Amino acid sequence: MHRPHLAHARSRSAALLHAVEAARRWSGDGIAVNAADPGPVGVDPEQGAATVVLAAASPLVGGISGRYFAGLAEAGPVGPGVAGGVATHALDPVVARRVWRWTERTLREVWFAGLPIVA
Q1: DSSP label at 63?
Q2: What pTM does this model have?
Q3: Torsion of Cα atoms, 91 then 96 then 19 then 48, to 10°
Q4: How far apart (Å, rounded) are the C-alpha atoms in residues 52 and 47?
Q5: How do beta strands 73-74 and 68-70 pair?
Q6: Are 65 and 52 in contact (CB under 8 A)?
Q7: Is 116 domain-assigned?
Q8: 17 lies in which domain range?
Q9: What backbone phi and psi angles, to 5 degrees, belong to 77?
Q10: DSSP classification of residue 86
Q11: Mean per-residue pLDDT pooled into runs of 10, the chain (119 residues)
Q12: Does an H or E element contain 54, and which?
């Protein structure tokens, strides 16, 4: 049975885990990678873009990489009495590496079968 809320939560965790691994891989190149929640559906474009722009380009987050931003701030850990936040597993570098490798394998097998891999 498809559970939309669970599917959404898993997709958000996967996106954050990819950001964590990309941040690790590209840190030596001076590239920062963060994940951002644009907020609820139905907000105006400026509100939806605000957290994304903060995470991507604001000098306020200079030097911060591999993190999750929501509501115009870096998200704190999920816990009792915390509305929103980020689950600990979604920042785990070991899990992030496994998800990245799974994604590479899946893309290679499903989408790029028979095509040469260019590194």
Answers
A1: T
A2: 0.83
A3: -60
A4: 10
A5: antiparallel
A6: no
A7: no
A8: 4-111
A9: -70, 145
A10: B
A11: 88 94 96 89 87 92 92 86 82 97 90 68
A12: helix 45-57
Residue type, 44: D
Token pair listed for 94: 């070991």
Tokens of 47: 């509100």
Residue 42 token pair: 């139905």
- The CA angle 28-30-36, to the nearest 5 degrees, is 110
- The answer to whether residue 81 sits within a structural domain is yes
Among 67, 40, 64, 37, CA closest to 53: 37
- Residues present in the chain in total: 119
Q: Note whether residue 37 is domain-resident.
A: yes
Residue 74 is assigned to a structural domain of this protein: yes
Report the number of distinct structural domains present in the chain: 1
**Looking up tokens 């996967």, which residue turns up?**
14
Structure tokens at 36: 């951002």
CA distance readout (Å), 18 to 11, 27, 41, 81, 91: 11, 14, 23, 27, 10
Rounded to whole angstroms, how far apart are CA atoms 52 and 58?
10
